[in-house]
Amino acid sequence: MRIPTPQVRVLRRIPTRAERAAWHLLRGRRVGAKFRRQSRINRWVVDFYCFEQRLAIELDGGVHAQPSQIRKDAVKEAYLKRAGIGLLRVPNGIVLKDPEEFLRKVREATGRPNDPSPGLLRRPPSPSGEG
Fold first, then answer.
1. Which of 9, 16, 41, 73 is the most exposed place for a label (fewest CB within 10 A)?
2. Domains in the chain: how many in total?
3. CA–CA separation, 38 vs 49, rounded Å?
4. CATH of the domain at 102
């Protein structure tokens, strides 16, 4: 079953805290590769996808430790592998607490140099526009 486009749009409009932080680090080719948020690949939606690198990034929160989700993730991962798409799984905590480690993992997966862009690790703007 394919996820309908309106549902994918909702996922883009209402990101988790970790997705928002990761997007701040990935957007605008900041890591040397272009990523898209909540990208549909056949019947699956991945948190971030780079077409030119054929690399998907999934941020894993607590729900991914549940047995039913582990099975779903395994099926999704097997499909992506068969389709020739690499998958980088990163726990939410790494994105939120150690953004430099998140960037290191992304650069390693994309084969990009490991020198951050200036100002890249600044905190993302607050959703309310304050701070």
1. 9
2. 1
3. 8
4. 3.40.960.10
